[in-house]
Amino acid sequence: IDFERLRQEFASSPKKNTTVCALNDAIDKRLKKMLERNPLRIDYYEKYLKIIAEYNSEKDRVTIEKTFEQLMRFISELDQEERRAIQEGLDEEHLALFDLLVKPTLSKQAIARVKKVACELLDRLKAEKLKIDHWKEKDATRSEVKTFIHNFLWDENTGLPVEEYNPEEVERKAAVVFEHIYRIYEDAEHHIYRNVA
């Protein structure tokens, strides 16, 4: 979308409300895809809902124009979020796992370690455990995946930095990662990231 052109057209448009509605629909679709790939983007969805709630409460000309500007700024934030994977040196798939594992108080060295953990864990899961057909349907294979994640994150060589994560945090992270893997991966080849560039 050429946003500068959209701004110019919006400024001269007699149907500003229609333009805002169309922009709203486009953002809604984009957000749903982003949330599907990374559930920790829920803050963006909540911010978006707040903008729309304000818009729906009063639809005078000033509110419509204000909403349009808020939506344009919001799109810019979404663009930055989608570029974050590149800035972190990860793809969307590994970024989602990294986001689940990272915490705000980490040193740069620990962040680098967590990135490595996220990448290696996901790659090994896909190479080993998620190759099993219908892994979710069998208690034994589900347990294998859960145990693999747990052991990987606890291992001093492969796991989260012990000086940065206490045992309760590692347990929580293992559970959250398993839930993510369970939700996203039918198997190593069938998941929502398959066609994401």
Q: What does this protein look like?
A:
- α2 (16-37) runs parallel beside α4 (61-88), α3 (42-57) packs antiparallel against α4 (61-88) and α7 packs across α8.
- The chain is mainly α.
- 71% of the residues lie in helices and 0% in strands.
- The relative contact order is 0.09.
Protein traits:
197 residues, mainly alpha, elongated
Which overall shape is indicated by the principal axes computed on the Cα atoms?
elongated
Please tell me the overall pLDDT.
88
Our count of helices gives 8
Rg, Cα atoms, Å: 21 Å
Query: Which residues sit in consecutive blocks of at least 5 with pLDDT less than 50?
Result: none
Based on DSSP secondary structure assignment, what is the total number of beta strands?
0
Mind summarizing the main beta sheet?
none
Order of helices and strands: HHHHHHHH
Gap between N and C termini:
18 Å
What's the helical proportion of residues?
over 70%
What class, by secondary structure content? mainly alpha
Q: Into which percentage range does the β-strand content fall?
A: under 5%
